[in-house]
Structure formats: C-alpha cells, structure tokens
C-alpha cells in the first residue's frame, strides 16, 4: 500500500486538457443538435397540451381554464361611478350634460346631438349583474334615504322588451312604500323574462305575474293583463293605481305621485271621448243586463240594468282610485266585459273598457255619476306634441326634428318642457317589435335617444320636476274631481255637475 501513489484530480485534468478540448466544428454541431431538440420538444408539448385539453375537458385543467374565463367575463361588467355608467361606456356619455339640457342650453344640446344620441345597441350593451345586491345598487344606490309617504301608488305595467329600460323606469319610480306589478308577453325572449322575474325575487313590493300574455300591436290583452295585476294587488295598501305599457315613462317623483293621490282622494283620472265605432261591436247588446255585467242584479234599479251604455274612449294610461278598482271586482263580472272589448278582429281595443265602466253609472263606489257626454281632454296624465296629417320622419316642426305617428319624438330638446310640465306621464316614442307606437311622457324611442330617459331620472333625483296641480286646476279640468269634492262635503245631487 505504501507504493501506491495518488494523483490530484486537478493535476490529471491539467495534464490531459489539450486532449479533451473540443474543436470549433464540434461546438457548432452541438448547438444545432440542441436547437433541434428544443424545437421538437416544443412541438410535442403543444400537441400534448391540446390533446390533453380535449381529453380532459372535465378535469382539473379544464376547470382551471373555466375559472380563468370566468374572471375574464367579469371584466366585461362596468365599474360604474355614475348611474349611466351601468348601461353605457364613458366615451358614449361624455356629451350627456343633463343639467345643461334642463336649462335648454342649445350649445350643449347641439354638441350632444351632433356626436350621436345615446342609443341602446345590443352588440355593445354591457351585461348587468343580476344578483339582488347588484340590482339594488343600480336601482337606488345613488338615491338619498327614503322617507315615509302619505299615500302609496300601485304601478301596473305591461312589459315585453328591453329589460334595461324597465330597470331605469323602476329606479325612477322606486320607493319602498309603492307597489309594482308587471305582466309579461309570452313572446318576449328568455333573457327578458328571467331578468324581470328576478325583480320579483329581490323585492317584496314587486310582483311579476306567472301568467304570460299574447300582446299585439292592436292592443289585445292589455286590459286583461292590467286587471290581473290589479287583482293581485288588492290586498296591498295603496290609494291609486297607474296603468302603464312598456315604454311609458313617469315624469313625477315618487313623493309627488303620493301627494297627488292624497289630493285626488277618491277621484280617478281619464279623458272623455266617444268610442270609435270601428273599434267595437255596435250591434251587440250593451245593457248591463244583456252583458250579464253585474254579479248580483238584486235591488239594482231598472234604469241601470236596461240602459244601453255609451262606449267611451280615452287612453290606456289612466289613474284609478282603489275604491273604484275594488268595487269593480266586487260587483262586476269583469271577465265578461274584458272579453267584449278584446275583439281580435279590431284595432285599438285597449282604450275603451275602463272609461266605459267609469262614465256609465253602474252604482260602483268611486265612480262618476254625472254621465258627462261632453268631450274632455285628459290634461294630467299625458304630455305629448301632436303634428297631425304629416308623414313620419324628419319634421322641422318638432324640436327633435323627428315625427312618428303624428307625434313628435321626445329627445333631450324637450327636457326643459318636461321639467316644467304638471303632467304625470311623458310619452316617448319607441319602435316596438309590433311596430306599435306606445304612449305615455309620449313614449321614449330607446333607439332614438336613451339619453332623454337618463336625464329625466337625473331631473327627478335633483328635484327639478314640474309642480303638481292644485285643487283649483283639477276642478277646472276634471268634472269628476268636482263631483268627488262635492260628495266629500255631503252635498252632491245627481245632474248638478256642469261638465
């Protein structure tokens, strides 16, 4: 063992260093081989990745991808700092200056119009979070605390399209003391139906009827749906109901409507006119007895049972006292009279029934007894601007320069007038899937100017709405109001009211 010699490793390497030093050609070859290996490995990895993703779509990897996609989807929701941010991009609303429009600032209006009115585009509309907390944030997250109201209103609306607009309308009228009932069209898309029914889940004072209706451009099933809603609301504590259609927009605050109800007492508001004879069956028996209108005819005077009722007409949008509505359900076979008017062969059938029942004395509580036959315009319910016998389209006589069905389409140009109007409803035109002009503050054409709706909400939020009418104004414009005042004093004599 003593003869064995150990050589240090570094000495060995030093002695043979020249022998193991690679040549330049071998280095180049190695580099090429390594590159080929890495490229091949990359191709195999990609192939394996794609194959594995398909083979394990339900595995952990696919769940990870789904989770990432879910996070990306959430990024599509708006980070809203103002109410309109929930529905439009900031770049779209940069020229929406509601406070300036309300002052009739023509420079601001022209700037907004020239850059393009706000239109709801299905391709760019942001998805809305539909959990209850998110809906509540949108509806009243920017509103001041609610104070108790003296009188509660029941809002009864037939709806069939554009959930976003319905949500904005609800936000404008929202108060925990008010009640809301919706009837849906069976032809509405599933997203619309699902979104509307979510409101029913989230709020105790919102009802969305399970039954769906076959609405059409002729007004069919409008009365039926409204009265189904009214029946559902009978056990709730409200004083007046307002009947609405899809695009009707109220232009008074929740408190103003409550105060108006207190002022009206038991009065219902609608206009008086004769029914157009091509809209109902003039050959039918229009006596209460012939129609089997009354549930119980015992003790009913013969002059009521056998007197032919005069078919009357106004608007579908009316304000009804609960006393009158309750009496209808208690004393009348309402289904029979609805069927009589809801004639599938006729047009405009939704503007006669309630007026006919109100203005022909049937012994109903809260009903007008004077039987006024003189035509009276409803100057409270609906704000609109007529331009008769002119074609649809561009019209310089309208501030918005646009006419639909003889009515000026409301754009931001009308906001100052809306803010000063004593009326309850502003009617903005909207082109519906039925190609129907639907009325109330005139009805809003959502693909014409959604900005008008947003600004009216801002107007209401800031308390810049028109004043409510007083008793003198109501008495001078509505004979039924004068009659109810006299009845309240206990001095009413039938036939004493001048229409």
TrEMBL record:
Main location: membrane
Family matches, as Pfam families: Branch (PF02485)
Entries under InterPro entries matching the protein: Glyco_trans_14
Swiss-Prot/TrEMBL keywords: Glycoprotein, Glycosyltransferase, Membrane, Transferase, Transmembrane, Transmembrane helix
GO terms assigned for molecular function: glycosyltransferase activity
TM regions (residue ranges): 27-49
Membrane topology classification: Single-pass type II membrane protein
Cellular compartments annotated: Membrane
GO annotations of cellular component type: membrane
Domain of life: Eukaryota
UniProt-recorded name of the protein: Uncharacterized protein
